[in-house]
Amino acid sequence: MEASVCIRSATLADTGIINRIIERSIRIGCALDHRNDARLVNDWISQSTVDFISSLLANPRCYLCIALLEDKPVGVGMAEINGRISLCHVQPESFRRGAGRALMHNLEGWLRVRGVQHVHLNSTGTAEAFYRHFGYRQAAPPLVSRGLQTLPMHKPLPQPA
């Protein structure tokens, strides 16, 4: 039987673990996207410093959450009040154990409660099938940002009756 995943809001005390989860997810889980190009990896990782994560936690327009598997932090997600999901990273050794699914459901729920009707994100090639599984579809041609190709995706977010 698979262990259950719990999601909780991130706190300032989590900045270090959030940074480590993002870094491991990028270095190992997204290797096909960056092709182990040290410049691309370092540029991508530099976007998630502890100070930057702290600023996101202080921003009321952002929501960061942590996925726990057997009480161990294994994933991080972030949504913005404008309907953008900007982070969904899981430790590579915890792939396919439900953490990513739980993060996406939680982020979409947070957006739904705030009346957001349309969610958008940029997917790497590695994550595209994952997002398609949740109903996301290509919204525009692929983009190249900082040497990394991403695919803009979107999905309508049904509101509760």
From TrEMBL:
Limits of the N-acetyltransferase domain: 5-158
SUPFAM superfamilies cross-referenced by the UniProt entry: Acyl-CoA N-acyltransferases (Nat)
Keywords, sorted A to Z: Acyltransferase, Transferase
GO MF terms held by the record: acyltransferase activity, transferring groups other than amino-acyl groups
A Pfam family it matches: Acetyltransf_10
InterPro entries: Acyl_CoA_acyltransferase, Bact_Acetyltransf, GNAT_dom
Family annotation (PANTHER family): AMINOALKYLPHOSPHONATE N-ACETYLTRANSFERASE-RELATED-RELATED
Protein known as: GNAT family N-acetyltransferase
Species name: Pseudomonas khorasanensis
